[in-house]
Design goal:
Elements: H1 8-15, E1 16-22, E2 28-40, E3 43-53, H2 55-59, E4 65-73, E5 79-87, E6 89-90, E7 93-94, E8 97-98, E9 105-108, H3 128-133, E10 141-146, E11 160-165, E12 179-182, E13 194-200, E14 203-204, E15 207-208, E16 212-226, E17 229-237, H4 239-246
Antiparallel strand pairs: 1-2, 1-4, 2-3, 3-9, 4-5, 6-7, 8-9, 10-11, 10-13, 12-17, 13-16, 14-15, 16-17
Length: 254
Amino acid sequence: MSDVNFELNTILFESTFKIEQSIGPTSAIIGTTFVVGRPYPNDPTKARYVLVTAKHVLDAMPGNDAIWHLRQKDADGIWHRLPFPVRIRTNGVPSWVSHPAADVAAMYAQLPQNTINFLLTISMFADDAVFNKFEVHPGDELNCLGYPMGWESDSTGFPILRSGKIASYPLYPSKDYPTFLYDFEVFDGNSGGPVFMVESNRNFAGSTHVGKIQFIAGLVSQQALHVNERLALSVVVHPDYILQTINMLPSLSP
């Protein structure tokens, strides 16, 4: 996850999409999703698209279908909004799998051509070994993408990037610490968004290492509350639980 030849901020911008389901003439449930590739076991050069989000986002959508606000690039390299129906239930049965102990959901998805330029694979999820190797610690700055209150960064529907610092300790082992706090004020619509680290020339193992490290460090789950008071903190699900959820999906052949 170091010295990789792509820029994770941009790739995740292109891989993050708003999902929405109307629940009346003037209101809707809105959340954030992102797409990664799960390689085929017998052909790792090919992968299936996997939609990842917070479980409570899909739970809150009562209908069978939602609108996935994709984007498609034309021959001139210009992005255009592409509202796309996605079946999240069939006869009331969820199309997704969810982790039994974490606010994570994942499902296979179909995407039209030219919606994602570079497909991140599940290898981009950090685990305890990555957190330990790079000495991820309180005060480290992370980025996240989402749609606060449904807002978008432009008319084509790209998400909004914000950042904050890791605000709790310890961070691993993940089996004992499945979530951590993030100094980032979360709003409706942020849930399900990717949290990630991109850093150059990081100091770890007693010295500064030239190069770039980047990995997905979690998923926005919810805001932290004291009674009904907002604390301007987000609860982030550890990435290992996202990977566990994806691995609950049925295995398919190419």
